[in-house]
Design brief:
- The chain has one domain: Alpha/Beta hydrolase fold, catalytic domain (Rossmann fold).
- Helices cover 36% and strands 21% of the residues.
- The protein contains ten helices and ten strands.
- The strands form two sheets. An eight-stranded mixed beta sheet has the order 1-2-4-3-5-6-9-10, sandwiched between helices.
- It starts with a strand and ends with a helix.
- 40% of the residues are buried.
Length: 285
């Protein structure tokens, strides 16, 4: 089914998105990972759009969406407001969410905080955000403040052509050419001498504050939507098996599939991921 490019007007921001499927089907808001964009769902959406009406957002500062205003920063919690505002702009009171990595973290937190709005939760490589240790709070804050003070001192990187940008994205994210190319084609813009990233460089700055693990576990316990989670094997180093299992144990009735692949397995080998997501859907029906 042909993809449709759409725009959503959020308070103070214009958000770009891609849509697939019949609007009469169950709605699914797709949320990409950090420094990715809506194109990360291109392959997967073509396998799911016979079952769902899918709208994949470019988060603010990513892809073709606007950057946050000058003087603003990218606080994790603001992504949650962005998602809810996007759903409101679409006219969706209750909706499902499909999230990868950062998008999965945001989706799971919304589902726990506002369970009345979420009818289905499909997660890939994420269940709540990365947390920090209490004793590291001062160090984390100091790093963030220092980085913000020097935020505009680095010139943007310019690539001679698309292939050069694709090669750089492959190295940075352990991606195949096809997966990197999908992200890069939506994630660059013209610059003097070639192309540069369309992502806001402020996205690379350290977060000033992180949740502690006990807070995340409390939010996850309040999820009420039927939930399916896909975890790549081997696990990512920032979320070891024991930590992820502890989070999984908080979500009543969650279904978990562990599939061989990398962090971007939904792009590199989408068919097993689609099969697992549709199996979750059937179990929740």
């Amino acid at each position: 089914m042909q993809v449709r490019e759409i725009e959503l007007a959020l308070p103070g921001l214009r958000i770009a998105a891609r849509a697939w499927g019949d609007p009469a089907l169950p709605n699914l808001l797709a949320l990409h990972g950090w420094l990715d964009n809506a194109a990360s769902f291109d392959a997967l959406a073509t396998l799911l759009c016979g079952h769902f009406h899918i709208v994949a957002l470019d988060f603010p500062g990513h892809g073709r969406s606007q950057w946050r205003p000058a003087g603003a920063w990218y606080h994790y919690v603001d992504y949650l407001s962005d998602v809810l505002a996007a759903a409101d702009a679409l006219g969706w009171t209750r909706f499902g969410m499909l999230g990868h990595s950062l998008g999965a973290a945001a989706a799971s937190m919304i589902a726990g905080a506002l369970p009345q709005r979420v009818e289905r939760l499909l997660l890939i490589e994420g269940l709540g955000p990365i947390t920090g240790a209490v004793d590291d709070a001062g160090k984390q804050l100091g790093r963030a403040l220092t980085e913000r003070a020097n935020a505009n001192t680095k010139a943007p990187r310019v690539f001679a052509d698309l292939d050069q940008a694709v090669a750089a994205r492959m190295r940075a994210g352990d991606l195949s050419d096809a997966a990197a190319r999908a992200l890069v084609e939506r994630g660059v813009k013209p610059a003097d001498g070639g192309l540069t990233w369309s992502t806001d460089p402020r996205l690379l700055l350290a977060s000033p504050v992180r949740y502690v693990e006990e807070q995340i576990l409390a939010v996850l316990r309040d999820i009420r939507a039927p939930t399916g989670l896909i975890v790549a094997q081997p696990e990512q180093p920032y979320m070891p098996r024991a930590a992820m299992d502890a989070r999984i144990a908080q979500v009543a009735g969650i279904e978990v599939a562990r599939l061989a692949g990398t962090h971007h397995l939904h792009m590199e080998n989408p068919q097993p991921v689609a099969d697992a997501l549709l199996k979750f859907r059937a179990a929740a029906a």
